[in-house]
Amino acid sequence: MAQPKLALSQDPAADELLSSDPFALLIGMVLDQQVPLERAFSAPLDLKERLGGHLDPAQVAAMDPEKLAAVFATRPALHRFPAANAKRVQELARIVVDDYDGHAADVWLTAKNGDDLFERIRALPGFGEQKARIFIGLLGKQLGVRPPGWEVAAGKFGEPGTFMSVADITDPASLRRVRAYKQQLKAAAKAGEA
After folding, report:
1. Residue pair 3/168 in contact by the 8 Å Cβ criterion
2. Is 0.85 topped by the overall pTM?
3. 179-194: per-residue pLDDT in tens?
4. Contact call for residues 102 and 57 (beta carbons, < 8 A)
5. What integer is the mean pLDDT of 173-184?
6. In the chain, what are the domains?
7. How far apart are the first and last CA of the chain?
């Protein structure tokens, strides 16, 4: 079976890393807030390069927090808030090492069902309820990770034929549709505030 190819960063090298390295994909999801999503999902490749060509959860978990924050802050910064997100990524790495023996994919591959998957992802730093559901949608729709009940755990983000989140981005056209959807939501929220 061919490995699925993600297209979240819209950069072939960064998307190749996201497609082949579950830890990189988790990092991209952690960083996907308050920055353009292409930046969030290209940052794991930049981090890998800044760490000497390796993106190993044990290495990241063991790093001096100030050094990791400096890596995140090096221009161009990996996130708008580099120190806070370096801390989140280091905590993510610790969880992957301590709870999943260093295998990031085990967060989802060993989940018993959709509820278990939701609880595991929700427990990761930077994953609120909505982001956890979006990630479950991405796993189910694009990576074929479908434990029993995954659709319920993903909620509206698991529905087929939608363009609401990163779970639905497969190419530049779908990225534009997701952006248009988010702009509609913002416009509706702004109209409701007036």
Report:
1. no
2. yes
3. 999 999 888 888 887 6
4. yes
5. 94
6. 7-104 (1.10.340.30), 132-194 (no CATH)
7. 52
Q: State the residue for tokens 């290209």.
A: 42
What are 121's two structure tokens?
């992802």
DSSP the chain: -PPP---SSS-HHHHHHHHH-HHHHHHHHHH-SSS-HHHHHHHHHHHHHHTTS---HHHHHHS-HHHHHHHHHSSSPSSSSHHHHHHHHHHHHHHHHHHHTT-TTHHHHT--SHHHHHHHHHTSTT--HHHHHHHHHHHHHHS----TTHHHHHGGGGSTT--SSGGG-SSHHHHHHHHHHHHHHHHHHHHHH-
